[in-house]
Write a structure and sequence with these properties.
The chain has no helices and eleven strands. It is mostly beta strands.
């Protein structure tokens, strides 16, 4: 059974850093489009960053220059390095995987593989 397990969330002060990890089982992360989404308590889920099977990265404007998405093929894990965190980065962070060639244009909320999420809380 395909499984994605996030870790690395926690509480941090604004300006701090966190690294999120998403361990994948039963499929190779290297071949899949993968992404991090986040959802604040009263907001819709939004895509934060994605990385294609070819390694092409995209970022939401709000995190460009602060967050970095990467794949560790040896450990079959997706990472999100988050620096210079802001209060508005607070939310539940989810990783998702989708089999798709080329650019990661779309992630389906019901048919793609989603993790259970890890909470990030940034305080001022």
């Amino acid at each position: 059974q395909v499984q994605l397990t996030e870790s690395g969330g926690g509480s941090v002060q604004a300006g701090g850093s966190l690294t999120l990890s998403c361990a994948a089982s039963r499929f190779p992360v290297s071949n899949y489009c993968m992404a991090w989404f986040r959802q604040a308590s009263t907001e819709a889920r939004e895509r934060v960053a994605s990385i294609s099977g070819e390694g092409s990265e995209t970022y939401a404007d709000s995190v460009k220059g602060r967050f970095t998405i990467s794949k560790d093929r040896a450990k079959n894990t997706l990472h999100l390095q988050m620096n210079s965190l802001k209060v508005e980065d607070t939310g539940m962070y989810y990783c998702v995987a989708r089999w798709q060639l080329g650019a990661c244009t779309y992630f389906n909320p019901t048919t793609d593989f989603w993790g259970q999420g890890t909470q990030v809380a940034v305080s001022s």
